[in-house]
Amino acid sequence: MTDTRVSNMSDTATLKPDDRYQQLLARLGSRSFIEGLILPALGILVFLLAWQFSANRIETSLGKFPGPTQVWEQIENLGAEHKRERAKEAAFYQRQEERNARKLARDPDAVIKIRNYTGKPTFFDQIITSLLTVAAGFFIANLIAIPLGIVCGLSAATYKAMNPIIQVFKPVSPLAWLPLVTMVVSATYTAEDPVFDKAFLNSAITVALCCLWPTLINTTVGVTGIDRDLVNVSRVMALSPMVHVRKIVIPAAIPMIFTGLRLSLATGWMVLIAAEMLAQNPGLGKFVWDEFQNGSSNSLGRIMVAVIAIGLIGFMLDKLMLTLQKRVSWDKSAVLR
């Protein structure tokens, strides 16, 4: 084995420049390289050209519709604003430390107070807020949906009892849930020193109510469709109900469960942006609405930056779920898309 490797390495090392060039051309012309890099890059290039061509011909009340060049300028502007805001925050805390140090020098027993920085959240701060909110709503939803879906899949009676409720509430718009959630949270969450802000809870619960159903339905379908041979093996081995669920049900239903999780996460991300716009809760949705209301010459470009960021984050969240599915799935050879 070692001799073979040494021989291959020596052969590679002794290749002539022309031979290496031919190998490079062969790799660049391979089907996997074309499908994995060339075709996506070509699609993006065509999209950018079509976008720029169309943007130059669209005139709005705020000026021309922003093309890729204008959007890139606004990305740089938003990055610069974020750096300036962080510098202001650092200076704010530095002044506090110096002031408190002088106070302690005069009176060692003095009570020191640290005030939080209350500057305007930047575009990147809004992204973090939205990600935390959708993560909280997604977690709450699936904490309910997966166990309930397993029970509905295993018990026909439970499914028949729950199905009318699922079918009634599944199509309800998040815009209908939001006012109800806001009123309930305002009436019940009355702590003097709350752990979570009410706006955060409103958005998270609204997300949870809307992304509950895809995971619940897909988990139920996945559990119901388990191979009967696996069920018979469990009966022959006299597995307890919990062991049956852990060793048979969940591994067999993983593909459908993750299909529901991916749909739920995509739904929750879309719902969150709409909820933040409607309720003016902190996040990307509020950023879009504020820029729309601002009506400056840069507003359309900034909104397009937010639109692209929303799409890219949704894409990355889906890829994250797909990667997680590959890690936990028992069938490593399955093709996942």
TrEMBL record:
List the GO terms this entry assigns under cellular component, sorted alphabetically: plasma membrane
Q: Does the keyword Transmembrane apply?
A: yes
Specify the domain of life of the species encoding this protein: Bacteria
Check the record and name the InterPro entries matching this protein: MetI-like, MetI-like_sf
Q: Which intervals hold domain ABC transmembrane type-1? A: 127-321
Q: Which residues cross the membrane?
A: 33-53, 127-154, 175-191, 203-227, 248-279, 299-317
Q: Which UniProt keywords apply?
A: Cell membrane, Membrane, Transmembrane, Transmembrane helix, Transport
Name the Gene Ontology biological process terms.
transmembrane transport
For membrane topology, the record states: Multi-pass membrane protein
Q: Where in the cell is it found?
A: Cell membrane
Q: What is its main location?
A: membrane
Family per UniProt?
Belongs to the binding-protein-dependent transport system permease family.
Could you tell me what this protein is called? ABC transporter permease
Q: What is the lineage of its organism?
A: Bacteria, Pseudomonadati, Pseudomonadota, Gammaproteobacteria, Cellvibrionales
